[in-house]
Amino acid sequence: MGEKSKVVSIDGIKVACANCSLATLCLPYGLESQDVERLENIVKRNKPIQRGQLLYGPGDHFRSLYVVKTGAVKTFTQTPAGDEHVIGFHLPGEILGLDAIQDNQHGCFAKALETTAVCELPFEKLEHLATAIPGLQHQMLRLLSREVSAEANMISLLNNSTAEERLASFLLSLSERFRRRGFSPTDFFLAMSRQDIGSYLGLALETVSRLFTRFQEQGILEVDRKHVKIKDLEHLKQLLRHHTPCHASLNRSS
Amino acid sequence: MGEKSKVVSIDGIKVACANCSLATLCLPYGLESQDVERLENIVKRNKPIQRGQLLYGPGDHFRSLYVVKTGAVKTFTQTPAGDEHVIGFHLPGEILGLDAIQDNQHGCFAKALETTAVCELPFEKLEHLATAIPGLQHQMLRLLSREVSAEANMISLLNNSTAEERLASFLLSLSERFRRRGFSPTDFFLAMSRQDIGSYLGLALETVSRLFTRFQEQGILEVDRKHVKIKDLEHLKQLLRHHTPCHASLNRSS
DNA sequence: CGATAATTTGAATTAACTCAACTGTTGTGG
DNA sequence: CCACAACAGTTGAGTTAATTCAAATTATCG
Questions:
Q1: Residue from the list B59, B138, B152 with its beta carbon closest to the beta carbon of A127
Q2: CB within 10 Å: which end of chain A, N or C, has fewer?
Q3: How far apart (Å, rounded) are the C-alpha atoms in residues A76 and A74?
Q4: pTM score, two decimals?
Q5: Which A-chain residues 198-217 have CB contacts (< 8 A) with chain B?
Q6: Pick the CATH number of A11-144 from 2.40.30.170, 2.60.120.10, 3.40.640.10, 2.10.109.10
Q7: CB A219 within 8 A of CB A177
Q8: Chain A 223-252 residues in 7 Å CB range of strand D
Q9: What is the pLDDT of residues B173-210, one digit of tens each?
């Protein structure tokens, strides 16, 4: 493996997890450097995909997990009538496809919201490696468990919150996720449409639009189309102090 | 290990996963019999817990996963104000505590809805064993992944369904889970209150009550307090043909 | 048996939805 | 490079599904 060429090629480029800024959010977290190297050797990096392209769709055979490296991805299902139901948004460092381990096939679409690079992790190899590296096995279990917790928080949000609280929670989640990735937590661009946000939060797109307007009127946000500036983070947090379960954490992610 | 006493004692009773009717729904599924035996040796069986007793609470240190053997458990969070938010119901063969792997502490309450026996799986031992038994590692990943899928279905249900569809979906999920466990899929007792069901489905308890009445009037159900008879399974299924995503599966469980 | 809790039913309220119209943005081809 | 089509977002008005509040009824348990 150490013999592999170091010539840069689009297909077979050597991925350097060790140098990746997302490593602490990702699978390598907590691993010894020689183990990180073994992990690197199974990672495939493909060409970035363009906005609108699918990474996988429902029914596709499950081969790999994917980690977003740059860009953003939405996962969603579709009704026979053609309506989309957004399941989640995935930012750099976040892992996709965990729901497919179960029955070896994907259950939803994964579509790039913008030009997006992903690291591909062939699952069989990953699983095999995990038996040899206990720390990797543990990290995989942790990532799955984090997804379970995040989704449980989402369920709680949908069950017990008003439209206002849902959007506040969504914006705070984004803010925190950007912060952890070294981006501004108060000034960012939304990769998704109002419709996507509405679908994700169980709201009509008109409701989302009205709430953005209201938040702006209240001085909480400045919104210009996809561009969001959080002007009063504390006020935003205040909006969901009430209905929040004691031990919940907001950030759904890595 | 074969030397272990066969004397029955309350504390140290030898658990026979191999003979357990739930084995195909549980961790042993797919394992070689000698591996099942190694698994059995780390399983602890404690005294059954009584209705209302807690298995764990938020903040508790995470030591073990639990599998319901008989009875039923609900998991829930609590707001500072004291309102319960039900996260899920767990029937025999279903696993509890997966959300706690993430940060080594439980994030919710787990309370027995009736007299309940659980198998306790000390997580460190389980993880250690999983590095030695690839099939066990795989099964653990599968169980986590199933939980992720089930929760994603729940999110979809809450986002896109009416009260009627939610209750229909809930009843069908119970029906299917009972069927798999060898119980009647059309005649069963609810272990939880109307309030619990409402909290789980994001509905007011009055709405749940009214829907039970309506379903009964429509000849779909016969309801007598906790006792439910499904008279027209097809009709019930019909209620959620519409808003259901293409590839969703209804059963949240094992 | 009596008290407390769970459930049912009714009536009024409301948060969010749907429908509809309009505005602004983006991308495309003549 | 502009015109136009297609799309995304905003705003308004009326509707509705589910809620809240209230009261009556029915279990459950010591």
A1: B138
A2: N
A3: 7
A4: 0.90
A5: 199-202
A6: 2.60.120.10
A7: no
A8: 223, 225-226
A9: 999 999 999 999 999 999 999 999 999 999 999 999 99
